[in-house]
Amino acid sequence: AHEGILRRQSLRESAARTYARSLPIVPVRARGLTIEGADGRRYLDCLSGAGTLALGHNHPVVLEAIRAVLDSGAPLHVLDLATPVKDAFTTELFATLPAELAERARIQFCGPAGTDAVEAAFKLVRTATGRDGLMAFSGAYHGMTAEALAASGGAQRTGVVRLPYPYDYRCPFGVGGERGAELAARWTRSLLDDHKSGVPRPAGMILEPVQGEGGVIPAPDSWLQQMRELTASRQIPLIVDEVQTGVGRTGTFWAVERSGIVPDVLVLSKAIGGSLPLAVIVYREELDAWPPGAHAGTFRGNQLAMAAGAATLAYVRANGLAERAGELGRRMLARLADLAASHDCIGDVRGRGLMLGIELVDRGADADATGARPADPRLAAAVQQACLDRGLIVELGGRHSAVVRLLPPLTITDEQADAILDRLADAVTAAVR
Ligand code: PMP
C-alpha cells in the first residue's frame, strides 16, 4: 500500500507539494509524538503539522471535544452565526490574552488558514487608518496568498517596505548581539522619521516575535519593545503574527508576553484549532472600523475546529504547558549547544521553548567578521534524510534552507525529548561523514 499510494499521489499531485518531497511517508495512524506509516514504520514527529499540534496527534481531550460536538447534533457548519461552541471557544481564547488586550478586544473569524488571518489584518489596518503601505521584515513568513506573500521573504514588493530583522548569527549589520538589534531598530526609526525618504506613514507593521520559517530566529525583547514604541508613538497599528509562536510554544502562552508588548492586532491560527483549520484576528476595538459585511467568507464557522481549539487552549492553560515548554526547551537547547561544540558543521543553535533551530554551515569555509560561516543547505538536507532514516521527522527552514527545525508537541516527556536529541545527534554525525 505504502509504495502504491506514494506513486499514485506523486503522479496526480502537483510538484509544488512541499513536505511530501522530503518526507516519503504515508501516515495511517498517529498518537502524541508518534506517527505510523502504511509500511508499519514509526516516526517521532517533530514537524507536528507545521507547528499546529500543541498537544500532539489525536490527544484524548481533543478527540473528546470533537466527539461531543458530533454527538450533540450541533450543525458542523454555521457560517459566522453565534453558537454555544463558538462562545466557549471565544471565552477560552480571551482568557488567555494579555489583560490589556482582552479587556477591549474584538475577534474576527477569518477562515481556515493563517494566511486568511494575515490578509484580514492588513485589510483591517488599512480601513482603520485610511493609509495603504505596510512594513514587514526580512526573512518573515506570513503565508502564501498575495498580500501575505508580499510581506514575506526577501523580495522587495510594491507597497511593502522591508526592514531588517535582528538576526544574531547572521547580523545584517555585521555586529550581532544587542548592538545588532539596536542598529536594526535605529534603521526602522530613521525610515519612519525621514520624510524625505519618500516612505509614507504605513497602514501597519507586521512582525513575528520568533521567525519560524525564516530559520527560528527569536527577536530580542528590547527590539520588540522598541518596535512597539516606534509604532505606538506614530499611530501605526502593530500586527503581531503568532500563527506559529502561539499557544505555549515559546514558553509563554503568547510569545509577546515575554517582552510585555501588547499588539494592536494579533494574528492567530495553527494550534488554536487543536489540529483542525481555524484562523482569527484579535484586535483593539478602536480599530474596528469595518462596516457590516466588509469582511466575509464562507468557512468561518467550523464547529469541530472551535471545539478542538477550545479544548487545546484550556488544556495548555490548566496544565502549565507553556512553562513546561520553556523549561524543556532550555534543557534541549543546552544539549544542542553541546552537540554544536563537538560538530563544527553546526554554526548556531537557538530557539525559544519548543521552537528550536540548528543552523548547518560549511565547516571548510572561512567565517565572516562575526564568526558566521556560509549556510550549507545540502548538508541540512542530508541531516533531514539521516533523521528520517532514524525515524525522526524534522523540517528545514531559514534564508538558505539550512536550518533544521524542531517543533515537537508541548506534551512530550523528558525521555521523548532525549530520544529526539539522540536521533538528531546520530543523524548529524552520519551526515557529515
Ligand atoms: N504566519 C506564520 C508565522 C506562519 O508560520 C505561517 C505558516 N507556517 C503562516 C503565517 C501561514 O499560515 P497558513 O500556512 O495556515 O496559511
TrEMBL record:
The keyword Transferase applies. Keywords: Aminotransferase, Pyridoxal phosphate, Transferase. Transmembrane segments: none annotated. Pathway: Amine and polyamine biosynthesis; ectoine biosynthesis; L-ectoine from L-aspartate 4-semialdehyde: step 1/3. The keyword Repeat does not apply. It is an enzyme of class 2 (transferase). Its cofactor is pyridoxal 5'-phosphate. PROSITE patterns: AA_TRANSFER_CLASS_3. InterPro entries: Aminotrans_3, Aminotrans_3_PPA_site, Dat, PyrdxlP-dep_Trfase, PyrdxlP-dep_Trfase_major, PyrdxlP-dep_Trfase_small. Belongs to the class-III pyridoxal-phosphate-dependent aminotransferase family. PANTHER family: DIAMINOBUTYRATE--2-OXOGLUTARATE AMINOTRANSFERASE. This is Diaminobutyrate--2-oxoglutarate transaminase. It comes from Streptomyces lydicus.
